[in-house]
Amino acid sequence: MHLISMNRAIYIVVLAIVSAGIPCAWAQSREINVEKSVLTVRVYKTGLFSAFAHDHEIHAPIQSGSFDQQKRAVEFKVKSADLKVIDPGVSQGDRDQVQETMVGPKVLDVAQFPEIAFHSTSIESKGPDQWSVQGELSLHGQIHPVQVEVNGANGHYRGSARFRQTEFGITPVSIAGGSIKVKDEVKIEFDIVGR
Q1: d(CA 89, CA 94)
Q2: 190: which residues sit within 8 A by CB, 6+ positions away?
Q3: What does each C-alpha distance from 170 to 67, 102, 135, 174, 183 come to in angstroms?
């Protein structure tokens, strides 16, 4: 009788823990903490007179997203209109001009293509806390494969990816007859934290 009471007490304690949601700490699926996570887009200058131009640094706030360590999946969305040109070391006027060009019809065309999205299709381990993530990037109304190199652990991940603007139907901006322009290749860096 005492053993039955003891087993029942253990069962009640276990049930209470489960009901309280303590096992959620072990859950693999997590939302991205959009307040603590950062996407940075880097666009580099090129051309004969590129010394008179500057590289661009763009902040891309994540609207929503999640990752699942068990299923090896990640996805996120960004509002195109929320991208903001940072470009340290240049005047506010120059930043405003770059911002206007970036969101306008020549580049992102945010009125027609309001969202940028990524979702993984496969994740391959490259060593302790390192992965190569294959996925699909939706940008400027087109979807193309992108490879992302990732490192991190315990819900905090960093990494980068590169792609060409022309792959997504975007013509790199060019001024002064092409003597100053931006490179076709764009680099995205990210620092993602889970909730």
Answers
A1: 10
A2: 37, 38, 39, 40, 157, 158, 159, 160
A3: 29, 11, 20, 12, 12
Please identify which residue in the block is written with the tokens 């990640």.
74
Model pLDDT for residues 30-68, shown as the tens digit of each residue: 899 999 999 999 998 774 444 445 788 999 999 999 988
How far apart (Å, rounded) are the C-alpha atoms in residues 3 and 25? Answer: 31
Q: Give the 3-state secondary structure of residue 63.
A: coil
For 161, the 3-state DSSP assignment is strand
What pLDDT, on the 0 to 100 scale, is given for residue 53?
58
User: Does residue 181 surpass a pLDDT of 80?
Assistant: no
Query: Coil, strand, or helix at residue 31?
Result: strand
Report the CATH fold assignment for 27-193: Lipocalin (2.40.128)
Q: Which tens digit of pLDDT belongs to each residue from 82-129?
A: 999 998 888 899 889 889 999 999 899 999 999 999 999 999 999 999
Q: Which two tokens stand for residue 97?
A: 């001009």
pTM for the full model?
Answer: 0.76
Rounded to whole angstroms, how far apart are CA atoms 173 and 119?
Answer: 27
Locate the domains of the chain by residue range: 27-193
Give the C-alpha separation, 99 to 195, whole Å: 31
AA letter at 165: Q
